[in-house]
Amino acid sequence: MAALEIHNVCKDFGSERVLKDVSISIDSGEFLILVGPSGCGKSTLMNAIAGLEPVTSGNIYIDGDDVTWRTPADRDIAMVFQSYALYPSMTVRQNISFGLEMRKVPKPEREAAVERVADLLQITHLLERKPSQLSGGQRQRVAMGRALAREPKVYLFDEPLSNLDAKLRVDMRTEIKKLHQRLGTTIVYVTHDQVEAMTLADCIAVMRDGQILQLGSPDEVYNNPVDMFVAGFMGSPS
Ligand code: ADP
Ligand code: MG
Questions:
Q1: ipTM of the predicted structure?
Q2: Which ligand is nearest to the CA of 47?
Q3: Is the C-beta atom of 11 inside 6 A of ligand 1?
Q4: Ligand 1, atom 23: nearest CA belongs to which residue?
Q5: Helix 107-121 and helix 92-102, axial crossing angle in degrees, nearest 10
Q6: 65-83 core/surface letters (b: 16 or more CB in 10 A; e: else)
Q7: CB–CB of 145/118 below 8 Å?
Q8: pLDDT tens series, the chain, 238 aa
């Protein structure tokens, strides 16, 4: 059974169709990278999977359950998005712990999870600060920590490393890859960084204008692009 199945999803904003019959099936433990030019609908698709935007038609299944009309909290997912909204009145520690508290995880386990992700993301020294006392890159790491503290069925990452400096981005990429190998989690990850796509993905989906043009292994998409657009986008040899 697929860990995540997106079935004929369409999404309209007013009269504009932004997702056009998108279907993707992701096996448990698979790392799917979603790439495509700015404005092609990547974030809209992620928001639909997360339940932040209702779809116009189609269905979304997680572990075989139809979650199309469930709230984000009822979908066993954790997400890190571009607009990493942290709770401003809470400390970093409370921000990371909050999702676990909501799910009634006992305090010792919550504390252990906070220590684990703080160590992983090198934010231990920031745990007692408020979001307003952090840089953009630090906030992004806290948002990442909040997602990683949980162990949901599916992680959604929408350009999570885009605000980090080059060195940290490479470190974080390595950490995400290790985490994926260690936990075997299912991940959908949006990036416009081709190197990131080729190094992280089991599977790459190339999107253009609300449609999936090609879905395949990095090797397939790179070496056997379905058209000139995919070839150009992936930098395939001609
Ligand atoms: P991407 O993440 O690939 O850059 P988006 O999913 O953010 O693209 O946007 C896809 C299209 O949908 C764009 O044309 C964008 O302007 C439009 N769009 C996104 N969100 C909204 C919204 N809330 N209301 C109206 N149009 C939107
Ligand atoms: Mg986007």
A1: 0.98
A2: 1
A3: no
A4: 13
A5: 130
A6: eebbeeeeeebebbbbbee
A7: yes
A8: 899 999 999 999 999 999 999 999 999 999 999 999 999 999 999 999 999 999 999 999 999 999 999 999 899 999 887 666 899 999 999 999 998 998 899 999 999 999 998 988 889 999 999 999 998 888 888 988 898 898 889 999 999 888 778 887 888 888 788 878 877 889 999 998 888 899 899 999 999 999 999 999 999 999 999 999 999 989 988 7
> Which pTM value belongs to this model?
0.90
Output the CA angle 134-195-197, nearest 5 degrees: 85
Atom 16 of ligand 1: nearest residue by CA position: 39
Ligand 1: which of 22, 34, 43 to mutate, judged by most atoms within 8 Å of the beta carbon? 43
Enter the DSSP assignment of 38. Answer: T
Among all bound ligands, the one having the nearest atom to the CA of 39 is 1
